[in-house]
Design brief:
Elements (H helix, E strand, L loop, with lengths): L2 H33 L6 H22 L3 H7 L2 H25 L2 H8 L2 H12 L7 H19 L2 E2 L4 H25 L5 H19 L7 H4 L2 H27 L2 H5 L4 H13 L4 E2 L1 H22 L3
Antiparallel strand pairs: 1-2
Helix pairs in contact: 1-5, 1-11, 1-13, 2-4, 2-9, 2-11, 3-9, 4-8, 4-9, 5-8, 5-13, 5-14, 6-8, 7-14, 9-11
Length: about 300
């Protein structure tokens, strides 16, 4: 394995461990609110998400080299679309999906972004259409998701709804990644991620504003700590992943995306005491992970 490939794998693993930790962290927030007797609403969920991304986006913009200069030369339409895909729409659905599903189930389903990429990239940026082998991998992935959702194990209150919400989340997240390919010639990865997280975070905060009267109860010391960790995950994870996409071929990085659901499942099962894997997760989970890997491997070998 060439040194450059090893380095890409190493940094991709860091991203996967960071993103994977978000699943148990968010579930821990919901569990803490429940234990405190607080009513969990869609507005409190989105308010929490908004605070996280405002902090993450602000931190990234402070670390970026020339965000204002990049902003002046980058079309606002692309920034708006990137914000809409990567942050606002992705996490409107994601936070709700994690709430009604288990952390491990959400982590498995988060890998569906690879399938969306295969389908959407040819339409949006005119990459080659998937080959027969890739479509077969997608089909097996769908079968694996169906099995997993049918019996995900403890911790999921509504696995079917959770699956739909997470799949919608990964759909918009994949669109955001594709749009970033049009932004990166004029804007650095830190600035682009920073603006998307900050603007999307503000939008989520405003959408969740009906929960502002309860903000002092929602954000006690434990939730503040978890929010700061999740903000760190967003800032470092998105900036590093987007930066890697400017150095390494997308085909190479896409073959490492399966590490994210893998790390998410392992971290959720290790950290969350309320979760245990069901038969569906044991059978369907590996099918999903293998299908993701095969789909990306065949994509990498496409001439």
């Amino acid at each position: 394995m060439p040194p450059s490939t090893l380095k890409a794998l190493f940094y991709s693993l860091i991203c996967a461990l960071l993103f994977g930790s978000a699943f148990p962290a968010i579930k821990s927030v919901y569990a803490h609110w429940k234990n405190q007797g607080l009513e969990i609403t869609i507005f409190s969920i989105w308010l929490f998400a908004g605070v996280r991304f405002i902090i993450a986006g602000t931190g990234l913009l402070c670390a970026a080299k020339q965000p204002l200069k990049d902003l002046q030369i980058t079309p606002w339409r692309l920034i708006a679309l990137f914000t809409l895909g990567q942050t606002l729409l992705q996490y409107i659905f994601f936070y709700l999906g994690v709430y009604v599903s288990s952390g491990s189930l959400a982590a498995i389903l988060a890998g569906s972004g690879s399938f969306w990429w295969m389908i959407l990239a040819p339409i949006i940026i005119k990459t080659p259409w998937p080959r027969t082998a890739q479509w077969i991998a997608v089909t097996f992935g769908f079968i694996g998701v169906t099995i997993t959702v049918y019996s995900p194990g403890s911790g999921a209150t509504n696995p079917l709804l959770g699956a739909i919400l997470i799949l919608l989340s990964t759909l918009f997240g994949s669109i955001g990644i594709i749009i970033f390919s049009k932004i990166k010639p004029t804007m650095g990865s830190k600035a682009a991620s920073g603006f998307a997280l900050l603007l999307g975070g503000i939008a989520l905060f405003l959408i969740g504003s009906p929960a502002i009267p309860e903000i002092s109860q929602l954000f006690d010391s434990k939730i503040i700590t978890l929010t700061l960790w999740l903000a760190f995950v967003s800032a470092v994870g998105f900036a590093l992943w987007n930066h890697l996409s400017t150095i390494y071929p997308v085909s190479l990085l896409s073959s490492y995306r399966f590490l994210i659901p893998l790390c998410g499942v392992i971290e959720s099962l290790l950290i969350l005491k309320s979760e245990s894997p069901g038969l569906g997760l044991f059978i369907g989970g590996p099918i999903v992970l293998i299908s993701i890997y095969l789909a990306q491997k065949s994509q990498k070998s496409t001439p």
